């Protein structure tokens, strides 16, 4: 990346990034940057804090596919801000989104804060029973790459759902294991994927293992090639119409240390601990709520009606759909009785 290049302007204003910084509940040590975002530190520690605050405040969800008149997703930055931050622009009744929504939103916030960041397209692997094991598919995912003043480069994926990293991952050829949830470790390696015919062009490959004694497995791959909003507009048409878990109603919220699984029981206060720790995740999958607190996943709640699902969305994720949105799933194949 040419560090002297002219970067794309952010779609969000200083006032909008200030509202976002207040909404994500930064530690109290960051209070001065909330009121003066222009001096936000450009360090790994600050970037890691922003990432963990982002993924624990904005859930991964595909509700727009199921609860909207078009059953499609709009990824224009101004639309994303209204959706994620809510009509009051203070986070009230805000939503989450799927990978392109969350990562494009986060990209523009980082740009407003002065980070040197760009977006790139990602090839996911096909899965069987949730486990990646097939070929790498076309571009259906998105990632952000950040260059810090120190010269370090990091992958920042805030939209891969429950399988995503909870820390920035270094692009440094060493392939160092990074602790994720529980005993799970993740890393990036620089290598070829099996279907490549030009092997002198290596890709970054996101890998995981659920315990240090397990073998590594690969989720996705990407190159350090800048993608633009126009590229993702094309990819989003396919992604929201043909993939995007259309066969599942899915919401995933990462949990910070000290937070309750029930969204309504988490006080809206700043945290004193500078080190934001992600310790688990709450998930809505069709008609059940699952919780993983760093170990085994268990079902904690189930329901068999749309009314039950709407209550679960509010109770566990702080998401309240409008009456119009709630009605648009009627007649859709994923509607409950």
UniProtKB/TrEMBL annotation:
It comes from the Eukaryota. Keywords: Transferase. InterPro entries: Arylamine_N-AcTrfase, Arylamine_NAT_domain_sf, Papain-like_cys_pep_sf. GO terms for molecular function: acetyltransferase activity. SUPFAM superfamilies: Cysteine proteinases. Belongs to the arylamine N-acetyltransferase family. This is N-terminal acetyltransferase. It comes from Aspergillus puulaauensis. The gene is NAT3.
